[in-house]
Amino acid sequence: MSQETQSLSAIAFQKFKKNIWGVSSLGLIGILVFISIFAYVLAPDNSENANQMHLSIHSKPPGFKVQILKIPALQKEEIKLQYYLVGFPNSTSEIPIKSYTLVDNAIVYEEYSEEATLQLQKSITLQAFPNYSSIDDVAKEQITTKYFWLGTDKYGRDLLSRMIIGSRVSLAIGFVAVIISLVVGIFFGALGGYYGGKIDAVVMWIVNVIWSIPTLLLVIAITLALGKGFWQVFVAVGLTMWVEVARVVRGQVISAKEMQYVTAARALGFGNFRIIVNHILPNIMAPVIVISAANFASAILVESGLSFLGLGAQPPIPTWGSIIKDHYNYIILGKPYLAMVPGIAIMLLTLAFMIVGNALRDALDQKTA
């Protein structure tokens, strides 16, 4: 039986590899997972939540570049390993400048501004840079050209960095919501499908009641009950997606419990729990995996909708939905890219999971072998 299971898995894997779109979508998901894990290593702005603001260069187009004068803190912050996971302290002051000149032991610079009346000249002396002995060295190392590849948002923050950090929320909400939906859905589905009778009637009544409530409204209600926050959204989304898993598992268990291997297990005196966990569930997981891929995509969309409504992760935590919320009015103000960039990212990630789900369905369907 083990060899047969391995051969079927190998056949499914070979079929999946032949699906170019499925493999490409899985590769895209893998790349995004890698980016989200090492977000603060890859993001140009590695401050916590990519929250380095430069109001003078707000709403700039993709490819914008500007000279930045960096003024380090007097006390140097010790770099800790946890900063690579949660972001580095914003200890360095950054000033966008248009031009500068060196006068004696001082840097005379003109702050960046599109308004002529606000273009002021200021100076900073060598004393502000205690680790340097020459103003020329300060100019070489502390004045750099910074590129904003996706432009800046309305607060002058790097949009690319916000998108990279925000990918963590989208992927995390998907993983947590799918895990919660699997645990709850498999439990109720297996319970109702295996025992039947009144237990099945109660389970299906609960499923039908939850199924009749629009998903977004139910998520909003749970979110308001648990409170606004990062983990509350994860739990709320997960608790609304288990019904589909429960229905699929119930139907599969009803069919599987009549199979000969289940009858043989009962004849050997195995308990119901052992039969369900060790014999039935491993043989019905193929459709559950497909449903999980679809639920992953749905969770991302629901989280984006909640963030757009202001009920998701709260600022300054960046999410793709909150970035759209902050900039959707820019669509009619001549800068649609501020809302389109996260919108396209959500669309591509959702589409990738749906394609992977369809590819898994085809690969696991032995009738198409």
List the helices and strands and how they pair.
Blueprint: H1 2-18, H2 20-37, H3 39-42, E1 64-71, H4 83-86, E2 93-103, E3 106-111, E4 121-125, H5 135-142, E5 143-148, H6 159-195, H7 197-212, H8 215-226, H9 230-238, H10 242-256, H11 260-267, H12 272-280, H13 285-309, H14 320-327, H15 337-364
Antiparallel strand pairs: 1-2, 1-5, 2-3, 3-4
Describe the structure in your own words.
By secondary structure, the chain is α+β, with helices and mostly antiparallel strands. It folds into 2 domains: 2-35 and 160-368, MetI-like fold; 57-156, no CATH class. It has helices spanning 2-18, 20-37, 39-42, 83-86, 135-142, 159-195, 197-212, 215-226, 230-238, 242-256, 260-267, 272-280, 285-309, 320-327, 337-364; strands at 64-71, 93-103, 106-111, 121-125, 143-148. A 5-stranded antiparallel sheet has the order 4-3-2-1-5. A hairpin with a 2-residue loop joins strand 2 and strand 3. Helix 10 (242-256) runs antiparallel to helix 13. The radius of gyration is 27 Å and the shape is elongated. The relative contact order is 0.13. The model is unreliable at 1-5 (pLDDT under 50).
